[in-house]
Amino acid sequence: MTHRLTTLGALLSLVVSLLVLTPTTPSQAEPSAAAAPMATGFHISGRNLLDANGNAFVMRGTSHPHVWYQGEADSYAEIAGLGANTVRVVLGSGQRWGPSPASDVANVISTCKANKLVCVLEVHDTTGYGEDAAAATLDQAVTYWNSIRDVLIGQEAYVLINIGNEPIGNTNPGQWTAATTGAVQRMRTLGFTHTLVVDAPSWGQDWANIMRDNAPAVWAADSLRNTLFSVHMYQVYGTPASITGYFDAFAQMGLPLIVGEFGHEHQGQNVDEDTIMAEAQARGIGWMAWSYSGNSEPYLDQTVAFDPAQLTTWGQRVFTGANGVQATSKCATVFTGCGATGTAPSAPTAVTVTGTTSASVSLSWTGSASATQYQVQRAPGACATGSTFTQVGTSTASVFTSGGLAANTAYCFRVTASNASGTSAPSGTVTGTTSGTGTPGGCSAVATVQNQWGNGYVVQPVAVTNTGTAAVSGWRVTFTLPAGHTISGAWNATLSGTSGTITATNMGYNGGLAPGAGTAFGFQATRPNGNTQTPSGFTCSAP
After folding, report:
1. Is 166 among the catalytic positions?
2. CA 346 distance to own-chain centroid
């Protein structure tokens, strides 16, 4: 579960009755490094998770707090009865909870399989490492997985291993990259060929974009290329732009992503669950909502006291609402009696420029019969090897007009197709060149202080809008921090420093803005206790 974003140094609060478990079996001896075996069971293809039969599998489920509520064994059948195809199971590695013994984990796996649930097993003890002094390291989590390896090896078609929940807090989130790379590589050395799920830092929310920016390095470090990236969407993701921007970034990198946790609100702040669920469905992205019952924050309970007949408002949204579990879940084809889940659509073909103006390029293409949405991607300049693409829009038909472009300028376009089972490879590319001449763009920046506390605050959103009559390909926002204030993190922009006058520049995926279009970024800062000042002088320029 995601906890503190804004208050640094705070410990997690879990009001649960923790059960003392019997010790686990001794750790297995670690083999020496050798050539990794081929992946079996679940595996990644492009941006899609495939089951052992090679069929696309899109997670739709919830989390069950098993280590704290071991008496609620009926929950697995209840979750399956509500339509879920996946359950994320909270385990303990012994540093804070548990350790969950091998015999217990074997029973969990067996129960999941009996209920046709894919089992995502996670170690919760790592939550908030670096900020929470009690948290375990990812390396300790790997040692735990090795201690129960006998009940995991052979279950690759039914089990994914979420190495550690929210493994880094807000303190030095940059350590995530090395820690996660090391954990993935050690798991492979130990002989685990399972799909490995890795959570983002900053309590899972990745508001500093550490996972997003370093995901390619972690992916490359996995000898099996079988790593699934997991972001936890809570109060950082309160607007459609924040959600689609994050999804777009992984789409642009061609890397697999799931929403490993999300809620409808968190710590008194809104979460845009409607956009999370709608965009995940359109793009074939899996999700597991938090959580079935037993929370220390009851507004995140999906049932009252583990009773599936008493769905909370949040539970109704997850299981019976639009784009929810019952409307979108399909079980994995490895289970007897499950029909085919379908396949991701083929790539669109014959992308053609059908018209241009001084500010737009119109496209058409031959689509896939199974596609429910097309994603149009654009790169600056004529098409060339190494063109860098950014998603600029979506369409449910095989036509699209990309507007707000600069006059007499070449742009390269390509299209992908998606449905609930996944996303296609990109189409071929086509160059479109606008006509005429244009007027330079301008932009504005309006900042909102979202949350404040004694020695810090969050500014979100800083809304950036193109106020010109032509498209802009980038923007810069300048503002000034009061004396003694320091930036502690930022998202959806690159900041020039941490104090004084700051310049925020666009990321690769949110720099292009049509006339009247907008985007947003945010940041968190610390300040002296008792100081109530906030940043000022926000100005925007579009070079």
Report:
1. yes
2. 24
173 is written with which tokens? 């989130």
Structure token pair of residue 112: 């999941």
Alpha-carbon Rg for the chain in angstroms: 24
157 touches 110 (CB < 8 A): no
Is 261 a residue of the active site? Answer: yes
Separation between Cα atoms, residue 241 and residue 210, nearest integer Å: 18
Closest CA to 256 of 41, 423, 62, 63: 423
Contact call for residues 174 and 9 (beta carbons, < 8 A): no
Query: 72 Cβ partners below 8 Å, 6+ apart?
Result: 64, 66, 293, 294, 306
For 7, 143, 456, 460, 524, the CA distances from 528, given in Å and listed in that order, are: 14, 41, 8, 20, 14
Structure tokens belonging to residue 464: 């950036």
Alpha-carbon distance of 114 to 80, in angstroms, equals 10
CA distance 37 to 188: 9
Q: How far apart are CA 212 and CA 525, in angstroms?
A: 21
Annotated catalytic residue within 131, 156, 261, 279: 261
pTM score of the predicted model: 0.65
| Torsion, CA 403, CA 408, CA 410, CA 415, rounded to 10 | 20
Q: What is the rounded distance in angstroms from the CA atom of residue 70 to the CA atom of residue 14?
A: 16
- pLDDT, block means (10 residues), the chain with 543 residues: 41 29 37 43 93 93 97 93 95 96 97 95 97 96 98 97 97 94 97 97 95 94 96 95 92 94 93 95 95 92 93 94 91 77 80 90 91 83 78 84 80 85 84 73 83 84 84 88 90 88 87 84 89 90 78
- Order of all β-strands in the sheet with 518-526: 443-453, 456-466, 518-526, 486-491
Q: Omega into 298 within 30° of 0, i.e. cis?
A: no
The residue annotated as part of the active site, out of 156, 166, 273, 279, is 166
Beta strands, E only, 95-215? 118-123, 159-162, 196-199
User: Nearest Cα to 126, choosing from 118, 117, 135?
Assistant: 135
